[in-house]
Specification:
The protein has about 300 residues and is an alpha/beta fold. It is built from six helices and six strands. α1 runs antiparallel to α6, α3 packs parallel to α4 and α5 crosses α6.
């Protein structure tokens, strides 16, 4: 009986010795995967933290440019009225034929800046079509074009992408010339939809209604002013294009500040989430390593006991 027991112990000891490398390899593979994922998450956290600091620095410049653009655009308020919030907007104030101009960005990783504008455009198109109004779209920004062309590709007349940042008045003048070339004067109104900056943590969506200077009789524009004979029509065309340029420039500055504030908040949240993930992975890694060490100790002690017995 003792010889049979000794033989059984030796067989069990050999089986443990043969299975030990396999279990160890399996445990090390799990640890290696966790360690690799931890390192990748740490690298992502470094990138998002750097992007947050870059956005914070850019936001200061955008705030300064916006502060300069606001008084420059004050003269348009008596002609176009105050911007209207897109939140719970009914768009009943829009005329029969409208050209929608959503301003979005070419880059992502900036929270819901572009999604909010695209959602507002879709809502505006839906309500206008339900009420029998006509509308077309000229998209500014690659993100807005990508989100809108899947649903409203048939009414998108033009798009402008790869816009230089920060925007300049020269760029706004070029875009207003494109709008005029797209037949902006043939519409009853041009509606610019953009993000308006409130502070570093808050931005809202608004739209501006810009109507062309046209009409006869009592509806004739600028009746309080005198013009040289046969020059008023040309002056009205030039003034309308300059009005579009000024409004686009202000909307660019407002949207740029909103984009940087949203990107800063998004990168801060991403860094925070990465930190939480690193803590969770570290806990799993330590547990796996501890379990492997415990298993190896048990196998060593069991083998030694078997040999002694």
């Amino acid at each position: 009986r003792s010889s049979i027991a000794n033989t059984a112990r030796r067989v069990a000891s050999r089986a443990m010795a043969q299975s030990q490398p396999m279990q160890q390899t399996r445990g090390m593979a799990t640890e290696k995967q966790l360690f690799t994922q931890m390192q990748s998450t740490k690298n992502i956290q470094k990138i998002t933290s750097s992007m947050k600091m870059v956005s914070a620095a850019k936001l200061k410049g955008d705030e300064n440019r916006l502060a300069v653009a606001k008084p420059f655009n004050v003269w348009t308020t008596p002609l176009c009225g105050e911007p209207i919030s897109m939140e719970d907007a009914t768009y009943d104030d829009l005329p029969q034929k409208t050209l929608l101009v959503p301003i979005t960005s070419d880059k992502g990783l900036c929270g819901g800046v572009n999604s909010f504008i695209s959602r507002g455009v879709k809502e505006a198109v839906r309500k206008m079509q339900e009420s029998g109004q006509e509308c077309d779209i000229v998209v500014i920004g690659d993100k807005g074009r990508g989100q809108l062309r899947r649903i409203h590709g048939d009414i998108i007349k033009r798009s402008a992408t790869e816009i230089q940042s920060p925007g300049t008045f020269t760029l706004a003048a070029a875009l207003s010339a494109e709008l005029v070339a797209a037949g902006a004067a043939d519409y009853d109104a041009v509606v610019i939809m953009y993000n308006t900056y409130v502070n570093a943590a808050v931005y809202k969506q608004a739209y501006k209604v810009i109507k062309p200077f046209s009409g006869e009789g009592e509806d004739e524009p600028m009746m309080a002013y005198e013009f040289e004979p046969d020059t008023k029509a040309e002056i009205m065309v030039d003034l309308y294009e300059y009005l579009l340029t000024s409004q686009l420039f202000h909307s660019f500055m407002d949207g740029a500040a909103s984009e940087q504030s949203s990107r800063m908040a998004a990168m801060e949240n991403a860094s925070k989430n990465a930190g939480e993930m690193i803590e969770s992975l570290s806990l799993q890694y330590n547990r796996a390593r501890q379990a492997r060490i415990t298993t190896e100790l048990i196998e060593i002690i069991s083998g030694a006991s078997a040999l002694e017995g």
